[in-house]
Amino acid sequence: MAPIIVDKEAKKEEIFLAAASVFAEKGFSGTRMEDVAVKANMGKGTVYEYFKSKDALFFGLYDYLLNEFHTKIYAVITPEQTPFEALSAIVSVTLRAFDEWHDYGFLLMDFWKEHRRGGGLQIEFSAVYDKSRDIISRLIDEGIEKGEFAHVDSRAAASAIIGILDGVMLQRVFDPDLYGKCDVETHIPALIFMGLKKR
Amino acid sequence: MAPIIVDKEAKKEEIFLAAASVFAEKGFSGTRMEDVAVKANMGKGTVYEYFKSKDALFFGLYDYLLNEFHTKIYAVITPEQTPFEALSAIVSVTLRAFDEWHDYGFLLMDFWKEHRRGGGLQIEFSAVYDKSRDIISRLIDEGIEKGEFAHVDSRAAASAIIGILDGVMLQRVFDPDLYGKCDVETHIPALIFMGLKKR
Amino acid sequence: MAPIIVDKEAKKEEIFLAAASVFAEKGFSGTRMEDVAVKANMGKGTVYEYFKSKDALFFGLYDYLLNEFHTKIYAVITPEQTPFEALSAIVSVTLRAFDEWHDYGFLLMDFWKEHRRGGGLQIEFSAVYDKSRDIISRLIDEGIEKGEFAHVDSRAAASAIIGILDGVMLQRVFDPDLYGKCDVETHIPALIFMGLKKR
Amino acid sequence: MAPIIVDKEAKKEEIFLAAASVFAEKGFSGTRMEDVAVKANMGKGTVYEYFKSKDALFFGLYDYLLNEFHTKIYAVITPEQTPFEALSAIVSVTLRAFDEWHDYGFLLMDFWKEHRRGGGLQIEFSAVYDKSRDIISRLIDEGIEKGEFAHVDSRAAASAIIGILDGVMLQRVFDPDLYGKCDVETHIPALIFMGLKKR
DNA sequence: CATGAATGAGCATTCATTCAT
DNA sequence: AATGAATGAATGCTCATTCAT
Predict the structure, then answer these.
(1) Domain A65-194 superfamily per CATH
(2) pLDDT over threshold 50, residue D3
(3) What burial class does residue C164 get, using C-beta atoms within 10 Å of its C-beta: 0-12 exposed, 13-18 middle, 19+ buried?
(4) What distance in Å separates residue B159's CA from the closest CA in chain A?
């Protein structure tokens, strides 16, 4: 008669936030569903009202975060930018994003690791990387066409750039002071665009 | 009665080989000590004679593999090489090593992931990266001195190079066809040394 | 505001019908209160308005069904019948009733099985059997008096007859083709009345 | 080197005995695996060394008990007996067996009830009844041939006899005094062989 | 030394029941 | 009256670790 109106999506988001925090701290297998529930200020059972299983929560979270991440990253690209400017913006915002959420690195490691355990729930990681590679390699192709970039293999270069960004993140996970030791946000793009060799 | 002489080190190596195979296939938390024992053709109890715990085995394995890996990688550096040649050799042998043992990627992911869980047993990953970074950044510094390389920040560049290599490995874990799609072993070094920008 | 008038008894019956169907299909412990609620087109909470607990619903259902069953069975007895005719009618209508509702067998099994779990709610099964035994043994006694039946122990014979009927039902639960294989409705009464021995 | 020798079968039997006792007392769903373990004086995990799951234990127990039961029952048949004597012996030993282990009735109810829950583990009850029906109907056929029994339908009569025995057991489960109230072991066989009708 | 039987802590998940609306 | 969101007790099962032989 007067059904309790609950914003299911809002509740899911609450759980996602709690889960992100706990998974990032303890890792997937180190996290108990109760930990998530406690963090989200609800009963264990309630979490299960919104997510069928621990796996569903985990990979759902991945989806959620990736979406937010991509939205954030690719919001910086505008049509007026030159390929160089667009690429610079992507690299720079990505590095800054890692900086802002250090835990994201741990989460991502877990996603990578748990990714294998069969089942149909899991995100198609390969597709995710494909998508990123597509965007970046298209910018590179455009840059080559316009004479801005050298005649590199655009897909290999895109892989390398993503590799740099992921790899830098990994290294920062294990050595948080890396940023302190050198100005990564300046030097990494420099390397990407200029290479090591003297001209 | 003559005491049975057992080569403890040889036995440990047997266990390492079995463990590497099983951990790579099933991941750390998906692997049961019994799986390792079976693979190594011995009883569960025997594994515990050589390793105090699952963690000790796992991180001991990391140590073991990393040692082998580093030995292999840095064997290619010789004093006669120019910095450019040395760096090229490292990059190239690393890419080829990933190629040879695809599972290594999964193992590495697990090491990264489990790395955190307290205790004092764990390898100091940061130190590992530091060591690699040291070797590479020294080569870069040398190259700058000799006028071979541009005036980049050598530590940032080293981070970026390691990042590229780790990152490329990660991408190949999720998309094994990457090598097929483009000649990574040619293009990645090219990007590293020449950068994207046209000269 | 005019209060909504709800026919409590009608609603209870709705729930009973839904419950009978679900319990028969999934068994007592396999049935969730929500299943019943869904089948009855109402909310879980509403079921609890009418039945204090799952047990109360289950044993209430037993009462309800038994009542219907008894009403049906004993409607066939009339004062004009000879004891033989009355008994024949009971046997025959019982066998036919089992035939009509195959699921009843499963329900009954569950009632038997759950019957023990303490508490004061449960139906006194013994009393139920006593009642049936009373009716049947009285008919037998009457038959003996009138010289229609042999001098058997009427209570033992009544037990045996109920036993035959319950037992036949059980066997049909596990082998639904039993009726197909032989004409139970003819042969079972024949055995009851004539026995195995040749005269 | 000196492996602990454990008689796996003996251990299984220990567990069966504990399980029979606990299942009979609390029913299948009311029994926790720990209850069985405690009763058998072992740890929970140990039970799982011998039985893959609660279901496997339960239906394994059924197999075990049924085997014992059948062995006991059909041990009383000898080639020299007339069909009447053989049948009498079966009926009588069955009734006495129920008497000796009252709990068997409860266990059987549970087996009946749980029987449905799909899966491939479960005993084919139908086959069990078929087997009993075969033995008994063959004896009846033999009796008919020899002129000992009336021309009944032997399969229907066999069903009825099994029905009587199962049914009597059920009634005794709910009214343990039934035996006290009348001499079932005399009167039930009398009814089976002579029927109700006066000759 | 080697073993594998025994153990029990630990955790994902289910579901009867409650109660705010 | 009716609802269904929230809850947490309860339990089957796994697996690292121990230890008697």
Answers:
(1) Tetracycline Repressor, domain 2 (1.10.357.10)
(2) no
(3) buried
(4) 7
For residue B137, give the amino acid letter.
Answer: S
Q: Where are the domains of chain D?
A: 7-51, 60-194
Residue A197 sits at φ, ψ, to 5 deg, of -65, 140
Among A residues 80-109, those touching chain B with beta carbons less than 8 Å apart: 84, 87, 106, 109
CATH number of D60-194: 1.10.357.10
- What is the CA A32 to C1' E18 distance in angstroms? 26
What does the alpha-carbon distance between residue C155 and residue C141 come to, in Å, rounded to a whole number? 9
> Nearest 5°: phi and psi at C13?
-65, -40
CATH of domain C62-194: 1.10.357.10
- Among the listed residues B66, B90, B105, B74, the one whose alpha carbon sits nearest the alpha carbon of residue B161: B90
pLDDT exceeds cutoff 60 at B4: no
Amino acid identity at B65: L
Please tell me the distance from the alpha carbon of residue B5 to that of residue B88, in angstroms, as a whole number. Answer: 46
Q: Which chains touch A (3 or more CB pairs under 8 A)?
A: B
Q: Does the pLDDT at position A121 exceed 70?
A: no
Q: How far apart are CA A120 and CA A143, in angstroms?
A: 38
Contact B196, A149 (CB under 8 A): yes
Chains touching chain D, criterion 3+ CB pairs below 8 Å: C
Decide if C159 contacts C139 (C-beta within 8 A): no
- A1's CB contacts (< 8 A; 6+ apart) are none
- What CATH number labels B54-194? 1.10.357.10
List the 46-85 stretch of B: residues with Cβ below 8 A of A: 84
Residues of chain B found within 8 Å of residue A119, distances taken between Cβ atoms? none
Helix (H) or strand (E) holding C16, with range, is helix C8-26
Q: What is the CATH number of domain D7-51?
A: 1.10.10.60
What tokens does D50 get? Answer: 């011998």
CA C20 to chain centre: 13
Which helix (H) or strand (E) is D25 found in, with range? helix D8-26
Measure, in angstroms, how far nucleotide E14 C1' is from residue A45 CA.
9
Enter the tokens of residue B50.
């050589």
pTM score: 0.84
Check if the beta carbon of residue B92 is closer than 8 Å to that of residue B145: no
When the candidates are 1.10.287.3510, 1.20.1250.20, 2.120.10.30, 1.10.10.60, the CATH number that belongs to B1-51 is 1.10.10.60
Alpha helices (runs of H) in B54-153, residue ranges in sequence order: 54-74, 83-100, 103-114, 125-145
- Name the residue among C91, C170, C155 with its Cα closest to residue D186: C155
B and A make contact (3+ CB pairs below 8 Å): yes
Query: pLDDT tens-digit profile of B118-150?
Result: 544 555 666 777 778 888 999 999 999 998 888
Mean pLDDT on D5-11: 78
Helices (H) and strands (E) in chain A, counts: 10, 0
Interface test with B, best of A159, A162, A165, A198 (most B CBs within 10 A): A159
Cα three-residue angle C86-C91-C95, rounded to 5 degrees: 145
Q: Among all chains, which residue has been given the structure tokens 């390699």?
A: A137
Predicted local confidence at residue A124, as pLDDT: 65
